[in-house]
Amino acid sequence: MHMDDIIEAVGGMSRFQILMVVFIFGPKMLVAWGMLMMSFAGTTPDWWCVPATAPSVDETYDMNNVTFKFCPTSDNITCQVVYSQDKNTVVSEWDLICDQNILKNIITSVQMAGVFFGALTGGQAADVLGRKRTYFVCLVLHGGSNLMAAFSVNWQMFTALRFLIGMMIGSLTVVNYPYFIEFVGRKWRPIASSLPVFGTGVCAFALSSWLRPDWSRQHIIAAALHLPFFAGWFFVPESLRWLAVKGRTDEAEKVVDQMSRYNKRQKPTNTLQLLKQVAEEEKKLRASGSRYTYLDIYRGWSICWKSLVIQFVWICMSLVYFGISFGAGRLAGNLYLNIFLLAVVEIPACIVTFFMNNKLGRRWTAFIFFAASTVGSFGVCIVARTVAKDDQGIIINVFAMVTKLSVGAAWHVMQLLSSETYPTVTRNLGYGAANTAARIGGILAPYIFATGGDGDIVVPFVIVGLTMAACGVLSLILKETGGKPLADTMGDQVNSFLECEDGGGSS
User: Fold this and answer.
1) Has residue 501 been placed in a domain?
2) Alpha carbon of residue 200 to chain centroid
3) What φ, ψ does residue 175 adopt, rounded to 5°?
4) Residue 199: how many CB atoms within 10 A of its CB?
5) Are 399 and 376 in contact (CB under 8 A)?
6) Which CATH number belongs to the domain containing residue 404 in this structure?
7) What domain range is 481 assigned to?
8) Is residue 493 part of a domain?
9) Distance from C-alpha of 487 to C-alpha of 421, rounded to nearest angstrom
10) Domain total for the chain?
11) Residue 91 lies in a domain
């Protein structure tokens, strides 16, 4: 476990790591912006189907309940659709209503399918090409895709660009988390899961959408906010651990030098020797010259069952998290306020995970939040069936927020546990596979709130409650990783498993 010794010696959490937070975790706010864009852009403004013979379609015409959201049922009925002017979404832009109503959910699912493929390819690219190159290329493409999407001329073009945006989101979320924790000391690794960057990004998106409620403007704003983070290419180095296991020890030593300068700490005198030991061990394990692939996270029962459990849990978390996020328009009250509140409630919970991860361990912290999410979801169902309809709104929103903040916090914990389960040589593959699996849930998420029919949220939240209960049980099956050094090679991982079985691992 030489790498942890080197990192602790030059500073496990100091100026250098703060720089990493800014340039590697900072763009996660823009990833949140891109991921949740359809929670606003896919909403349907109020609209009326006024007769084509009406003298005017402005305020002089009586917008009444008869023509409110009235879809023509025969060719003999002709009318022109008039939308409320309070917001401009893709629904009002391309008339995605009535028979075209399903298209808004399809666009969101296509985006999440893009996230699926991005996560699949991003993990492999980061392990083959390196963390830095993969990360910044995807960041540039994410910004460029948002800019192009703003000028879409039809829903087909917009859908294609949302798929590309989704691919970049998938790749960025796969790379940025392992990239960061590979520079951090073991005590500080939980900070990667407790930083509320994603939730902050969603809050900023909600505020921006309220100030400028236009789908095209929101894409332009998202693209412009990428520019400051491109400067990170000149400051952020390649992963120290990745360089070492690839045998590029001279470059790895230069990264250690950079860390020691930034943190004003003296590097160990035997740094190069320790790096060469890591490289030599990995070279022996890969004497055949073959590269690691996704198959390696399923080789051997000891890692295979962990991978399968982790991936199933991620599917459920994604299904619930994005199901509630994309369904914000179905909750009572103001759309922008709901998007904001569903995100802001996560922030204190995520910060708390830092202390809970170190005090209770990863497994029990995840279990507590999964249990809270289960209670919140079934609370929605009980209120919806027992409380008078006029009094339900605020109570249901509170339970929905408890559900959302809990699954969001649990996801932060599972990010850490999942990353720590795999060694450096397959960490991005294992984390990428979990992210890829999660996108299956994301693809299905837009349809969760359609299962109960228009206005009925009981069935959707029953699904949420059952999936969260299953995740809580499965989280306790996984082995605890808290307080243990990160494995760098497959040999380190085997030794770590043996220590756990012998009771020698610390927690």
Assistant:
1) no
2) 13
3) -85, -45
4) 26
5) yes
6) 1.20.1250.20
7) 2-42+103-281+291-485
8) no
9) 8
10) 1
11) no
Task: Looking at 327-447, list the stretches that DSSP marks H as alpha helix, in order from N- to C-terminal side.
Answer: 335-344, 346-360, 362-386, 389-421, 424-444
**Closest by CA position to 420, among listed 317, 312, 330, 507:** 507
What's the full length of the chain, in residues? 507
Residue 184 falls inside a structural domain: yes
Crossing angle (nearest 10°) for helices 389-421 and 346-360: 40
What string of pLDDT tens digits covers the 507 residues of the chain?
467 788 888 887 888 888 888 898 888 889 988 888 988 888 888 888 877 665 555 544 555 556 677 776 655 566 778 888 888 999 989 988 888 888 888 898 899 889 888 877 887 788 788 889 999 999 999 999 999 999 999 999 999 999 999 999 989 988 887 888 888 877 777 776 677 788 888 888 889 989 999 999 999 999 999 999 999 898 889 988 888 888 888 888 888 888 888 888 888 888 888 888 777 776 766 665 556 777 888 887 878 888 999 999 999 998 888 888 776 656 666 778 877 887 787 778 777 887 888 788 888 999 999 999 999 999 988 988 888 777 777 888 888 888 988 998 898 889 888 888 888 777 778 877 887 888 788 888 777 766 555 556 788 888 889 999 999 999 998 888 777 776 766 655 544 443 444 443 332
Helix (H) or strand (E) holding 60: none
